[in-house]
Write a structure and sequence with these properties.
257 residues; mainly beta; 15-stranded mixed beta sheet; 2 helices; 3% helix; 47% strand; elongated
């Protein structure tokens, strides 16, 4: 699941002697894109108990890039106990509303549009998620948030020797969103994409990846390269009983350089 892939337990928050504190968490992802007809998304929510988590945030104080491995497999996560949050959630967005009924697949309980449907809206629209709650389970909660705006980006070039890699996109115009760029490539002798320059950036429209990080992209084995760019917006609401977070993103199609 996309949601589980962005959430990790925070070992630094746990005590070496005291029992780990367990809390209730709820997460909604609204991953918007353009399907050649309209803008929209297939929202998904999950609710579960877990020890303390490091929550993803769209607020970035400085730009950062690093080289890390790349795999199409989702990262492993701790085992969680899923919670009941009611029979169906309601997501109001773009002047309309849609129901997200509870769905169980194997050991996973989630909330999503029936038959993997899609809700259409204009990226950047305001939205409200209403959680009816259940007892026992996740408490009733309402959270308002903003969806991620659409953007365009320039193609990402293969730089000349001694040059960095310029990234250019249309900015959101405020400090509450961030951009994530993943420049994926095959290292020497690899039959598939296995490395990436991973950048988390302020959403100001431009950044140049330093020369020191550009070599792998420049010398990608057999020119195997791919770019993924995503705008993030998050909103976190915490109460005495639980924490709910909305993760709104917008993805641009991935042309090869």
């Amino acid at each position: 699941m996309v949601l589980m892939g962005v959430l990790v337990s925070a070992p630094g928050c746990r005590s070496g002697t005291a029992p780990a504190i367990t809390s209730s968490y709820g997460f909604l992802t609204v991953a918007a894109n353009y399907d050649s007809v309209s803008y929209g998304a297939s929202p998904t929510a999950v609710f579960y108990t877990s020890t303390a988590l490091v929550l993803p945030s769209s607020r970035v104080n400085q730009d950062s890039c690093r080289i890390i491995s790349y795999s199409v497999l989702p990262p492993a996560t701790d085992t969680v106990s899923f919670l009941d949050a009611g029979a169906s959630l309601t997501l109001a967005v773009g002047g309309g509303s849609v129901s997200l009924p509870k769905t169980t697949q194997g050991s996973t309980t989630s909330y999503r549009i029936a038959a993997n449907g899609r809700v259409t809206f204009t990226p950047g629209d305001s939205a409200t998620l209403t959680i009816p709650g259940a007892s026992p389970g996740f408490p009733a909660t309402t959270i308002a948030f903003r969806t991620a705006e659409a953007f365009t980006r320039d193609s990402v070039a293969v730089p000349a020797a001694g040059a960095g890699i310029p990234l250019v996109w249309t900015p959101a115009g405020d400090s509450t969103s961030k951009m994530v760029f993943s420049l994926r490539y095959a290292s020497s002798g690899s039959p598939k994409l296995n490395q990436q320059v991973y950048c988390v950036l302020r959403d100001d429209g431009a950044f140049t990846i330093p020369v020191a990080l550009a070599g792998g992209w420049r010398f990608a084995y057999q020119d195997r390269r791919e770019v993924a760019a995503t705008r993030w917006r998050t909103r976190i609401l915490s109460t005495a009983d639980a924490t709910v977070e909305t993760i709104a993103t917008f993805d641009v199609p991935t042309p090869r350089p």
